[in-house]
Amino acid sequence: MASIFSKIVSGEIPSYKLAEDEHFFAFLDINPIAKGHALVIPKKETDYIFDIEDSELASMILFAKKLAKAIEQVVACNRIGIAVVGLEVPHAHIHLIPINTIYDIDFSKPKLKFEAHEFKALSDAIAAKV
Ligand code: AMP
């Protein structure tokens, strides 16, 4: 069965899309821990990131780099933090999180809430910079 993230890639489940190429897709995390919290996924479904083939994993990092540079231009922050957890969704993904302090990348804190129009405006602004 396709993962929830594969359904996002196919458009079966909506997302606030940020960027896409032949192999990767990026969208806003729906339960963000910081404004601009984004996810980068491979279109090819693999659960564990370190099971991804070397050249694809290297390309995924470069895709994430390009996206991080775009997020930086839209969300004021010290830098973009990067994290891989993968305990909730079994489809490899990189979290990109605008941070100013270590607390900004604390996954145990309450998630931020945004209205749909705020997510949309943010994703459009980031997508325009990619
Ligand atoms: P983890 O697998 O522990 O890295 O966490 C999965 C992440 O995916 C969490 O930060 C969720 O908020 C996020 N997430 C789950 N479902 C969706 C969705 N439909 N759209 C956007 N983000 C999602």
Describe this structure in words.
- The chain is an alpha+beta fold and 130 residues long.
- It has one domain (4-127): HIT family, subunit A (2-Layer Sandwich), CATH 3.30.428.
- 31% of the residues lie in helices and 19% in strands.
- A five-stranded antiparallel beta sheet has the order 1-2-3-5-4.
- The longest helix has 21 residues, at 54-74.
- It is globular.
- The protein starts with a helix and ends with a helix.
- The model has no long low-confidence stretch (mean pLDDT 98).
- Bound molecules: adenosine monophosphate.
- Adenosine monophosphate is lined by residues 4, 13, 15, 29-31, 39, 85-89, 93.
Highlighted features:
5-stranded antiparallel β-sheet; binds adenosine monophosphate; HIT family, subunit A; alpha+beta; 5 strands; 130 residues
What is shown here, in short?
The chain is α+β, with helices and mostly antiparallel strands and 130 residues long. The chain has helices at 4-10, 54-74, 116-127; strands at residues 17-20, 24-28, 38-42, 79-83, 94-99.
* Proportion of residues in extended strands: 15-25%
Helix-strand pattern, N to C? HEEEHEEH
The tally of structural domains comes to: 1
Instruction: Note the total helix count.
Output: 3
Mean pLDDT, all residues: 98
> Share of helix among residues?
25-40%
Q: How many runs of DSSP E, i.e. beta strands?
A: 5
CATH superfamily: HIT-like
Record the strand order, biggest sheet.
Answer: 1-2-3-5-4
Low-pLDDT windows of residues: none
For this structure, what is the CATH class? Alpha Beta
